[in-house]
Design brief:
The complex is a heterodimer of chains A (205) and B (202). Helix content of chain A is 58%, strand content 11%. Chain A contains seven helices and six strands. The longest helix of chain A has 30 residues. The mean pLDDT of chain A is 91. Chain B has two domains: 37 residues; 162 residues, Up-down Bundle (Butyryl-CoA Dehydrogenase, subunit A, domain 3), CATH 1.20.140. Helix content of chain B is 57%, strand content 12%. Chain B is built from seven helices and seven strands; from the N terminus they run ββββαββααααβαα. In chain B, β5 and β6 form a beta hairpin. The model of chain B has no long low-confidence stretch (mean pLDDT 93). The chains are: A alpha+beta (205), B alpha+beta (202).
Chain lengths: 205, 202
């Protein structure tokens, strides 16, 4: 017979993993707030996801960096940067940037929306599969910061008087915000909600 | 069944009391990692942490990258990377970059020493729980390994307009990233808190 901590009214501390009576509201070991499930997990995740979606638009429309060369300025967007790299025959690096800056943020948003939706709709999709999806989303999130770091390095490195210099564009701020907010959104989502559904069904049958 | 840990991913109650040195426990229902028992974990953390601190100081002391085109040259240190972004009017991005690649990792390293030296020696200190709490709260925000990939991508991006050379600092930072990752991953959350509790109640 298997049992969940919640079915015994035990809350598992998110900081130190201590199991304690949920009525304590405060972890007896590390004094962190104690809840059976993350507080308002679905609402908070959704709110952060919507913010991320809004940031995704300017992050892709505006230039992430601007190159000033001999009096002319040229901005390049995230996708534009990928295309330039392909023209320069740097296909592996173009793929890395495309993966981390385009596919990962988009995939993350869609996966989290999907997970929230399945929890809300009491979906019968295998909880184990959904847990793996969640774990991948959580693990991969910070790798999207690569593009922001690239901009920071190039801005610092490339400034040769009036000949050649690189400035950060508005999209750098939007994109950094997007990555941070989706990371928080993933953190706010409670994967245990995926399994709670199954528990309820088992109890009913 | 008397459980002493709940899976963080699916809330199943499990017992890990019989875990031996060198063994790893995963959840039987969802496969999520639970805890791992290492031989001499705190000794390992301390060694990697000291190595990482030395390398981080080195990474901040020398040239990080140098860049030359049409007879002109520009040289940067590690700290100038967020600094330049700040100068171009993006303080938020600059603070994020500085925090993710230098400040948070450095803070975690100091906290690891404050936590693991007493744990290694088996002594209770009043700050143990506070230090551990701060480590586990901030560790997902360190992006040292991501930054290394960022440097490599930048090099490829400007390889055909200029000659770029990697300075001593870059290699020191790469070594730091490896030691830092090993130090953090050697500290097992469940085992570490069990030890803190045992020391505090002794």
């Amino acid at each position: 017979m298997t049992a969940t901590a919640a079915s015994r009214h035990l809350a598992s501390c998110r900081i130190c993993y201590k199991l304690a009576d949920a009525n304590l509201h405060k972890c007896p070991r590390c004094k962190a707030a104690l809840h059976l499930r993350k507080l308002d997990s679905i609402q908070r995740t959704l709110a952060l996801l919507i913010t991320s979606c809004l940031l995704y638009i300017p992050a892709n429309l505006y230039p992430i960096m601007i190159t000033d060369q001999l009096g002319t300025s040229e901005g390049s967007t995230i996708l534009g940067g990928v295309i330039i790299l392909i023209h320069h025959d740097a296909v592996p690096i173009a793929l890395v940037i495309f993966l981390f800056s385009v596919l990962v943020p988009l995939g993350k948003l869609m996966t989290l929306f999907y997970l929230v939706w399945t929890v809300k709709r009491h979906s019968p999709v295998s909880p184990r599969q959904r847990t793996v999806m969640y774990q991948i989303t959580e693990f991969i999130g910070k790798w999207s910061m690569v593009d922001v770091f690239v901009v920071a390095i190039l801005v610092a490195l490339v400034h040769l008087g009036g000949v050649l210099s690189i400035r950060p564009g508005v999209a750098a701020l939007c994109f950094a915000g997007l990555v941070v907010i989706t990371m928080i959104a993933a953190e706010r989502f409670d994967p245990r909600l995926i399994w709670d559904e199954m528990e309820e069904k088992d109890r009913d049958s | 069944m008397n459980g002493d840990i709940a899976c963080q991913s699916c809330d199943l109650l499990l017992s890990v009391a019989s875990l031996k040195d060198g063994e790893t426990a995963s959840c039987s229902r969802c496969g999520h990692f639970l805890t791992r028992k290492l031989t001499d974990p705190y000794g390992r953390v301390i060694s990697f942490t000291i190595a990482a601190i030395i390398l981080l100081v080195m990474a901040n002391s020398y040239t990080f990258l140098s860049f030359g085109a049409s007879g002109l040259e520009s040289v940067i240190t590690l700290r100038e990377t967020p600094g330049a972004v700040w100068k171009y009017g993006m303080p938020f991005v600059a603070i994020m970059v500085a925090a993710f690649i230098i400040i948070i990792p450095a803070l975690i390293l100091v906290l690891l020493l404050l936590l693991c030296i007493p744990l290694h020696e088996g002594r209770n200190r009043p700050w143990l729980a506070a230090a551990a709490k701060l480590i586990f709260l901030t560790q997902s925000w360190s992006m040292v390994e991501v930054f290394i990939i960022g440097v490599i991508v930048s090099l490829v991006k400007i390889a055909d307009i200029a000659t770029v050379e990697l300075g001593i600092s870059f290699w020191a930072y790469a070594g730091f990233a490896i030691c830092f990752t090993l130090a953090v991953s050697s500290l097992d959350r469940y085992q570490c808190w069990e030890r803190i509790e045992a020391l505090e109640s002794a």
